[in-house]
Amino acid sequence: MLVFGYEAVKFARDQVRITNGKTLSRVIQYYQLTEHRLPPSGSRENVSQFLFDRKLTDKMVRDPVFTSATVILDEYAFALIKMYDKLMNSDDIEEAEKLVGVVKERVEGIFEDTEDANEQISKLKALARDNDIQKNVSTLKEVVNLSDKDLKELQRILKDSDLKTNIEKLRDLSAQPIPPECVIAYQADNRKNQYEISVKLESRFLIHRMREDGGNDDERFEIGNNLKLDTKVKSYGSSARAVHRKTTLVK
Known about the structure:
Helix content: 40-55%
Order of helices and strands: HHHHHHHHHEEEEEE
Largest sheet: 4 strands, antiparallel
Radius of gyration: 27 Å
Number of helices: 9
Shape: elongated
């Protein structure tokens, strides 16, 4: 569920990016109609600040990547990973016995009478870590001597919420840096009264829109009255730079 939560947050951020881009576009068009020129662009300009200062927007428009929801989700992921690691490496006999008791209730005969709590929990940990055993009943039967019915129940226990796989996915997701290209790019050509805004989309459910917007950059979602302007953004380590010198980046 948490893994899906990461994708949901990316989707929500992308929705905000698209909305922000369209809002900026409408305000830029209004400014163009009233002032007969476009807001300036370039490395030293900030179109969001420019429009805000003129009270054309009620707040600065920025990329939503540093919202509180993202921070909370990351903290939750780290907490879950820490909890999982603590459980899998725990030497707490009392906790081990509780877990063993739960499994015993659902799968009679999984443990030998001669096995103590340490041996029982070690067996569970080994089974929980081994994906091949979890997927293959015949392999599982070689490890634990159970009936087919009990083997199926043991498989269900080991696969409950697919914790191991999800933990590994969470490790990857929580370790991923924020793409530096997640900025608003803007370029204006006042001689031709043309402009373009572009944003980077993250969600796998929306990235196709970057290819289908009619622009010339398949890596960014483009909005404006000339989608052939160059608002490409390149990343250099943890920083981003506009390819064209007349492009503004709003971070």
